[in-house]
């Protein structure tokens, strides 16, 4: 089957490319290489079923030309994934998530492509404390441009699905971590400590409590949802039932790096920054009912990610 | 109080301007005059508390310059309001609703303006048949770019409210009709029959059943919501509990125009066009609990609108 992955050189996209190729599919990756890295894909460059195109989704004409008519499913992962940056430069999210998604949908219509898989995010639910959000939760009051523009993309995908008889699969994942991560809390802590092992600065008081998913569990969910759910628009939360605090992550990174005298400095307030959702509780019963089983709970996912990013657990491949 | 109305030369915006002026507020209207008309405002041009600026919200620099720092509340009504057009030219909604709203929010931040009132729409709920949607309804699966981009605007308003300590009031109204309407089903039927009294073409089989609100009832709700609801983000459906079918509207227009031999031609299918929601049922209990009382049920609103647009009921002023 011919597939296209936007953001396919990124953390999750490149591992999805590996998976789809392993299943015998043809994979074309489109990526502007802002977050993505060619080296995440270099092992596929000689595969005749693989193609890489450096392209920004904001370049609509080039995008429309690049998409092949025979594409079966587009896996749309390209977005601004740096939530904090979007709180300071909100136009980043508007462009790279909302407008990019619109351009993609419009190009798909022009080429007659009918299936889109989209990674949204639990950020669309906003800050609702200990409330478990299922897929029907409302009102949706995102507190960051990341959440707002993921929501905008969901809405446009739903509209295009109706207007052009398309089918859509939308995932709303918790925090995804693992090899090839290009940013995020664990990545940031390791980098800080490599620079100065004596001090670790934490945004917020460390009490933020969220669910973390290991990337291979996410890839499993993509396969499951894509193959098994048949509605016109299929929305699935993905999350484990377990949580880890930022304080626990900080302490784990320090421990795994073998440091002893590191001073962990917390800042005030329960949230890391203004667009940060401090408590994330996602109801995952719908995808569990479909048959999804995770291999790593939040604590295991965090520990494995730390070790992989420190090169303690193999080469970082899934 | 200094107020700003985007889309303030339009059907609803111009009547909101009249109301705010009558309450003693200063009103600056920004409108690109794509749907809006200067003559809707001409009676205010000599009022020292009124100012009109022809401006497109897509011109961000001009917009930021035009907004006065001392503005208390921005009433954001500018949008693409032609749902059908957006199904053929989806970029119209992306630009005039999503990007325009982003530009406005960003300009408000630059000028330190903290309050925004936004007219969203029941289109965000998508096509859910006879289900009554309350403000917490989900999932939100709009079937038109109109619905999708109104949802995107809600999301961005919510994000900006959190990021910049703003306060927001969001209305989700049913179909609004009345004097100064520039398009919509009644407007269209009257124009068709003025051109050819023998035949009226109806999109769909006429069974579409929706709630219609007379514009003065909407203005009352704006006042109520703006003054009485105090959350950071306040969302209210506005709708009556009554419905009218398109068939009933067609027959009423024919009758009010004194025509006898008009042939009403219906087309196939229960919806007018692909992005049309055929059955709209909106739960209005939240705004009723706030004290809102409508003066016109759907049938009365339709009849009054037909008569006003035919100049049978005064000069079209509210």
Per the principal axes of the C-alpha atoms, what is the gross shape of chain A?
Answer: globular
**DSSP summary: helix tally of chain A:** 10
Oligomer: homodimer
Helix content of chain A: 25-40%
Which fold name is given in CATH as the topology of the largest domain in chain A?
Rossmann fold
Q: What's the domain count of chain A? A: 2
Quickly give the CATH architecture of the largest domain in chain A.
3-Layer(aba) Sandwich
Biggest contact: A-B, 40 and 40 residues
Rg over CA atoms of chain A = 19 Å
CATH class of the largest domain in chain A: Alpha Beta
- By DSSP, the count of extended strands of chain A is 13
In N-to-C order, the SSE pattern of chain A is: EHEEHEHHEHEEHEEEHEEHEHH
Report on this structure.
- Two copies of one chain form a homodimer.
- Chain A has 318 residues and is α/β, with parallel strands linked by helices.
- Chain A folds into two domains: 2-174 and 214-238, 3-Layer(aba) Sandwich (Rossmann fold); 177-210 and 242-309, UDP-galactose 4-epimerase, domain 1 (Alpha-Beta Complex), CATH 3.90.25.
- Chain A is built from ten helices and 13 strands.
- Chain A has helices at residues 11-22, 60-66, 83-88, 90-110, 145-163, 185-195, 215-228, 246-256, 285-289, 298-309; strands at 2-6, 26-31, 50-54, 73-76, 115-119, 167-173, 175-177, 199-202, 209-210, 212-214, 233-238, 244-245, 263-266.
- In chain A, β1 (2-6), α1 and β2 (26-31) form a beta-alpha-beta unit.
- In chain A, α2 crosses α4 (90-110), α4 runs parallel beside α5 (145-163) and α6 packs across α8 (246-256).
- The first copy, chain A, is globular, with a radius of gyration of 19 Å.
- The mean pLDDT of chain A is 95.
- Chain A binds chain B through residues 87, 90-91, 94, 98-99, 102, 105-106, 124, 126-127, 135-145, 147-149, 151-152, 154-156, 158-160, 162-163, 233, 235, 274-275, and chain B through 87, 90-91, 94, 98-99, 102, 105-106, 124, 126-127, 135-145, 147-149, 151-152, 154-156, 158-160, 162-163, 233, 235, 274-275.
